[in-house]
Design brief:
Number of helices of chain A: 16
Strand content of chain A: under 5%
Helix content of chain B: 25-40%
Distance between the termini of chain B: 47 Å
Shape of chain A: elongated
Largest sheet of chain A: 2 strands, antiparallel
Radius of gyration of chain B: 31 Å
Order of helices and strands of chain A: HHHHHHHEEHHHHHHHHH
Strand content of chain B: 5-15%
Largest interface: A-B, 91 and 77 residues
Order of helices and strands of chain B: HHHHHHHEEHHHEEEEEEEEEEEEE
Shape of chain B: extended
Distance between the termini of chain A: 26 Å
Radius of gyration of chain A: 25 Å
CATH topology of the largest domain in chain A: Arc Repressor Mutant, subunit A
Number of helices of chain B: 10
Oligomer: heterodimer
CATH class of the largest domain in chain A: Mainly Alpha
């Protein structure tokens, strides 16, 4: 054992003695799965190192209190190959996993295929340094294990769908009529008033992250008010009012911006009501530009590979 | 959304949707832990803000987020860092809710006062009733009148014959207390002063109490005499909650002990009418779930605490389903149990159709009511019943 390992072990033992951690250990039901209090403390340290690096002790304890420790120990015990844990996992999630997969794919056979594929990852078909690596070891207890499984399934589905879309054969493209689709570059190449572009970009930048998320979900993704409301844990009437307010604000601010750039009110109104086919505003880029590189632990990984 | 705002929305929609065909934004994606926590509203403010910044510009992550959302509107309860926001809207609805609650409370209070005399009569019957009789429950006055007509004298005689209670042999000091019924129908222990006369307004009983149970018995006898004189008084023991609870001998003894304890206490008054309240509230339908170890559990307090249901054998159950007081629990190899009384008693059910039994693992149980339901098995079979499990059809 190296000196670093020894130090880490000592810190875990110290952490395990903390009353909050001891209480969480009791709550986690980790003992039947063969996880000791020191191992439990080590797991908590791993979680905090990933999600709250360099935090103070009170901040760490606050984070630990919000973790789903029962799910966390179950997942880690499964990842470690504990038979009893796998039995409990299968009992709780076997059917649920297939149900969720069916719900995501909206098709029975595709759902089963998706669930089987994720099951293989959860069990761990890959090895690292001779040891089986289970995807469950990347679960950190921030949300429920069921929610995490849902997200993993959704990511796998999106990745699979993207792969299939990339591998579309020429015949399939012909069937889909893709060759007749309008070229994307056409609109982009149309010369436009740069003042309108800049004005819209400025206004979108000034919105809060939540407003931009609502705008993107509603206008870009065509999500329903209910879906957006559920994602943000608010009532859908709140989203309805927000969108109404946002559209008014954007219109007003863009117009104001155009006036400040030398346009008359009439010119501004005309610019705003111009047909979309004449616009080349990079609103997606405007919406995306505030994404902070390195803000998450994925380090630039693609969806479905991030952060685990 | 209002009609007048539609043109504005369309303009903005055109601005935004025109960019759908643009290339996907690059950048770091959040891992499933953060997306799951976000969906469950369990992220800290700072994490949530950063995640929203990313989601606003990443259609892939938004797609994953929305795909991973459960269909049902039932949100999972998890610890949240989100501060509660109080808007005018919330206050407005809060005021409406509070008004409804006050009206409901007034209604309940008024109803309680209206039924108080009947509760008083029940207390007497419970304390002195024989083992085979049933506890009284709330009945409307009109119902009681009907019962009086159909069931009177003979029942009165049989009911009021109290079971002899053994005299205490080693009691050195007998409490000088007295039981009395007040206008709300509760029995009170009076302190031992000499002036034991109680204002009973013609309905309450007066006791000479060498021993509380004996006192209750005497009160019951006195009560029965009063009732037999006046046939307009209630003389019938009626059921609690459709006969769900019966008084056993043990229970009567327990009531006696309760009275005894109450008599031994120096303070007064002591109410014993809580028995009726317990009897009425104990029939609330429980919630059901399976533990991680496959044990069927129920909760009578909205999931605050859970207790294991006792079903024969150490079976690991896979699924549990409840409709009212009917509960179904399924396990491997076609093991199916049914309880018609909220888990008090369980019966093994063996679904059989055309001479063939259900032997596969039960994966899903769904009942629309107490009679109609289906049981799905791991081999794809679906077994249906339309008579609460007495006969089955295999689909």
């Amino acid at each position: 054992m190296s000196a670093t390992d020894q130090r880490d072990g000592d810190r875990s033992s110290e952490l395990a003695l903390d009353p909050v951690v001891a209480e969480l250990y009791q709550k986690s039901n980790a003992e039947p799965f063969g996880i000791t209090s020191v191992e439990f403390a080590t797991i908590l340290k791993e979680v905090s190192a990933k999600d709250l690096p360099g935090a103070s002790q009170p901040e760490l304890l606050d984070l630990y209190k919000t973790l789903r420790v029962d799910d966390l120990t179950l997942a880690r015990a499964c990842a470690a190959g504990n038979g009893r844990a796998w039995e409990a996992f299968m009992l709780r999630f076997r059917e649920k996993l297939y149900d969720i997969a069916r719900q995501i794919t909206r098709e029975d056979s595709a759902g089963r295929e998706l669930a089987d594929s994720v099951y293989a990852d959860l069990y761990g078909t890959k090895t690292r340094e001779g040891e089986r690596v289970s995807k469950l070891s990347s679960y950190r207890g921030r949300g429920s294990l069921e929610g995490w499984l849902r997200t993993v399934l959704a990511q796998e589905y999106v990745n699979t769908y993207r792969k299939q879309r990339r591998l579309l054969s020429l015949d399939e493209e012909s069937e889909d009529g893709i060759q007749f689709a309008a070229s994307n570059s056409e609109a982009a190449s149309t010369p436009l008033d740069s003042r309108l572009e800049t004005a819209v970009d400025d206004v979108l930048r000034s919105l809060t992250p939540e407003d931009r998320f609502v705008l993107a979900s509603y206008f870009l993704d065509q999500r329903t008010l209910a879906q957006i409301a559920r994602a943000l844990s608010v009532h859908e009437s709140t989203i309805s009012r927000k969108i109404e307010k946002l559209t008014k604000t954007i219109r007003k601010q863009v117009l104001k911006n155009l006036l400040s750039r030398g346009m008359s009110r009439r010119q501004g109104e005309e610019a705003l009501s111009v047909d979309i086919r004449d616009l080349a505003l990079d609103i997606r880029a405007s919406l995306a530009q505030d994404s902070l590189p390195g803000a998450f632990s994925g380090k630039g990984a693609k969806a479905g590979e991030g952060g685990s | 959304m209002k009609e007048g705002a539609n043109s504005d929305v369309d303009e903005i929609r055109k601005l935004v949707s025109g960019r759908l065909k643009k290339a996907v934004a690059d950048g770091p994606h959040p891992d499933p832990n953060l997306l799951a926590a976000f969906a469950e509203n369990a992220l800290r403010d700072a994490d949530r803000k950063r995640l929203l910044q990313h989601l606003g510009g990443c259609s892939d992550c938004r797609e994953v987020l929305y795909l991973a959302m459960p269909d049902s509107a039932v949100a999972q309860k998890v610890p949240s860092f989100q501060p509660k926001r109080f808007s005018i809207f919330a206050w407005r609805w809060g005021t409406v809710a509070a008004s409804i609650a006050i009206v409901a409370a007034l209604f309940v209070t008024a109803r309680h006062k209206a039924t108080a005399p009947y509760l008083e009569q029940k207390a007497v019957v419970v304390s002195g009733a024989p083992a085979s009789s049933q506890i009284a429950s709330d009945k409307l006055p009109s119902e009681l009148d009907q019962m009086r007509v159909s069931q009177n004298e003979s029942r009165t005689e049989t009911r009021i014959a109290p079971k002899p209670v053994p005299e205490p042999k080693h009691m050195t000091a007998k409490p000088k207390t007295e039981l009395a019924f007040d206008s709300s129908g509760q029995v009170h222990m009076l302190p031992p002063p000499a002036q034991n006369a109680v204002q009973d307004e013609g309905t309450a009983a007066k006791f000479q109490n060498n021993y509380p149970v004996e006192s209750a018995k005497k009160a019951s006898e006195q009560r029965a005499k009063d009732l037999s004189r006046d046939d307009r008084k209630l003389t019938e023991a009626v059921e609690v909650s459709a006969g769900a609870v019966q008084v056993s001998e043990e229970k009567q003894t327990a009531i006696g002990l309760q009275l005894q304890k109450a008599a031994a206490l120096p303070r007064a008054p002591q109410s014993v009418s809580g028995y009726q309240v317990n009897a009425l509230t104990s029939v609330v339908a429980p919630q059901w779930k399976l533990s991680a170890k496959g044990v069927v559990q129920r909760s009578f307090n909205s999931g605050t605490t859970w207790q294991n249901a006792t079903i024969a054998g150490p079976t690991i159950f896979r699924v549990v389903s409840a409709v009212g007081s009917d509960v179904w629990a399924g396990a491997d190899a076609g093991v199916l149990y049914h309880s018609a009384d909220s888990g008090q008693n369980w019966t093994r059910i063996e679904p059989t159709a055309s001479g063939q039994k259900l032997t596969a693992d039960i994966t899903h149980i769904e009942f629309s009511d107490a009679l109609n339901g289906t049981v799905s098995a791991s081999n794809g079979e679906v077994w249906a019943t339309s008579n609460g499990g007495q006969s089955w059809q295999r689909k």
